[in-house]
Amino acid sequence: MPRRIAHLDMDAFYASCELLRYPQLKGLPVVIGGGRRKEDDLLGKLQAAYPDGEWTEDSFVERLERIPVDFFPCIEGYTGRGVITTATYAARQFGIGSAMGLMKAAKLCPQAILLPVDFDRYRHFSRTFKSIITDIAPVMQDRGVDEVYIDFTDVPGGQREGGRVLARLIQKSIFEATGLTCSVGVAPNKLIAKMASEFHKPNGISVVHEADLQTLIWPLACRKINGVGPKADEKLKGFGIHTIGDLAAREQHWLVENFGKSYGAWLHEASWGRDDRPVETESEPVSMSRETTFERDLHAVRDREELGAVFTRLCQQVATDLHRKGYEGKTIGIKLRYDNFQAVTRDQTLAEYTADAKQIRQIAGQCLKRVDLSRRIRLLGVRVGSLVKAGTAQPPIAAYSEPPDQDPPQVNDHGQTQLLFPLD
Ligand SMILES: [Mg+2]
């Protein structure tokens, strides 16, 4: 049986989840991003507009559907550093896309409606669509909240029309259960499937065979290969290599000479559409982390309380993630990005595994002592790595390691106090 691997990508996933509850926004430019959700504010406004209480008998869902469009906030005049996570296709027509700053988007399309992110809702739909897939085709690999790889090879009917029939069935089943659309690429491997799922977005199916390499894959930009990032792409362009076909025309040894042994060899294989990676059903996480970008850059001294509170919250969130997914880890780390965009990380490895918020906070606090806190901070993150399934860790040889010392705050070369966050 020839390998048939599908890559399924939900269409504008976050935005589509929002449009399910606000169908009145369908067809309008809507962007998701920025701060917390303000749905209750919308309901408050609604009640103020209809004080006679005509809404009280409606179900919550129906109320949301009846919020007039002009009650939703627009991005016009937005100031701040919020970034777009997803834009509806109507918004994309204005040149708006994921990862774009909201201020820039506000210039391109001031009338776009801005909705805050609601990860709980997206995770709910994520679980739903994935369980529909595994009911039909059990070999599925998670690739994040809105995309998966699926191995069609041995699924009954998985070879029909190169996988198109099964892709259509999955697409239809997801739509019927959730109202959400997705796009699917079916190909001989993950590498090409991932490219193919973009060919006919939204709600499209693309089937690629090995023989289609020259006509469908080689004309694409190198950047379309999952694994060619902006840096590699720039270097390739410097050599006059723009398309995957250009890349395939280079000798492997030339690529190795210029891009290193493993990356060069991989580039060669990728350009010829070769990829043996299996669809892995259970990918174990290596680490879990939470980070936040501040509305304004914060300073360790002047914004001590705010920073301390955020820091503690991040630690609690990571601990909650660990508990919910049943992991513990022993490498605790922090990440900081300064106002000049320079990033630093520090970590510390414990003798024992933990998922305890207080302990994570304590060790992360120790890590923070080791970085320069005289600069203003733009982003703060906390990470727990070296994960194992909770309860499976071998007991350490030493029954108990020394508790981390509680150094007094240190003064750096500039005479500024370095550790200023309150420790638990
Ligand atoms: Mg997607």
Which structural category fits the helices and strands? alpha+beta
Bound ligands, each once:
magnesium ion
Number of helices: 15
Tell me the CATH superfamily of the largest domain. Reverse transcriptase/Diguanylate cyclase domain
Could you say what the CATH architecture of the largest domain is?
2-Layer Sandwich
Order of helices and strands: EHEHHEHHEHEEHEHEHHHHHEHEEHEE
Kindly report the average pLDDT value: 86
Largest β sheet strand count, sense and barrel closure: 5 strands, mixed
Distance between the termini: 59 Å
Report the oligomer.
single chain
Query: Per CATH, what is the topology of the largest domain?
Result: Alpha-Beta Plaits
CATH class of the largest domain: Alpha Beta
Shape: globular
- The side-by-side strand order for the widest beta sheet comes to 5-6-1-7-8
**Percentage of residues in DSSP E strands:** 15-25%
